[in-house]
Predict the structure.
Amino acid sequence: MRNVWGRALALGAAAALWSFAAAMAAPEPSAHDYVIKDFRFRSGETLPELRIRYHTLGAPKTDAAGKVTNAVLILHGTGGTGRQFLSPQFADVLFAPGGLLDPAKHYIILPDGIGHGGSSKPSDGLRQKFPRYDYADMIEAQHELVTKGLKVEKLRLLMGTSMGCMHGFMWAEAWPDAARALMPLACLPLEIAGRNRLWRKMAIDAVRADPAFSGGDYSAQPVQGLRTAQSLLMLVGASPLPMQNQLPTRQAVDDWLATELPRRMGPVDANDMIYQLDASRTYDPSTALEKITAPMTWVNSADDFINPPELGIAEREARRLKTTKFVLIPASEKTRGHGTHTWAALWKDELGALLKRSE
């Protein structure tokens, strides 16, 4: 009988713990579409309707003048979507009750960039005839969503990871008064060149060189080209120390790759990938960094293959940013290379300090 009661008590405690954890988890977001009529791209091309998919958590709060005061815009990386920020390592740290970005207090906006997720993209039907968008087009659409669609004049916080980090620098230069605080994570404010440009071009060329690509008019995905491109993406996003610990043997590596590569290839469209990687071609905010005046905390990680600290670029450019604190997270078993930007526990204290100094 004691054993039965013991098991019952253990199960009851486990159920209570599960219920508590579920209650503390971040809530589910609401999905919306915002349509921009006759959107003109920098290339001169136009779309009669440009759809921007976005998700929201929480609700807008206004001051006595009716202006929204609690909006937080979070911008995703290349190939991602706004929903990626619902992953436990991000959402359960920041969006949970009592978290720094608790939706009970903040109005969280998670858009899908042009060419990504549920927003307008080549795979919707135009394929290689889709307008050749770049980062400037992407932030222009985001800005219209925020200001005209959601009627937010000034964001409480603009945060971005990887490509979203780069978008954050561009936002801050184009609209210096658009946000009270800025937190770019995992990027450099400089033209994409060197090794960073090299792997992107290699991935694009691999897809285009696959005979099955057929100039973008394929009947089935060009698998061989995508395998090479995705393999490059997996490698540049990895961190040596945690990967060595996770995959300590040859067989462990082979088994992991056999499972992980098909999983990552599953949702990918070749045209979308080419456009996503090519969109960085005009990025270079380095000429106007002095325009950035809002309080900023800029975070990179020491084991980031894409933005390697040994280049010294971040420290050099940070000296031009008078309102910015630059943070380089040391490499450890807890960091995740370029992906450290999504592991909020590693930098949430810096976010808390930024929110405090920008009150």
Remarks:
- The first strand starts at residue 30 and ends at 40.
- The mean pLDDT is 93.
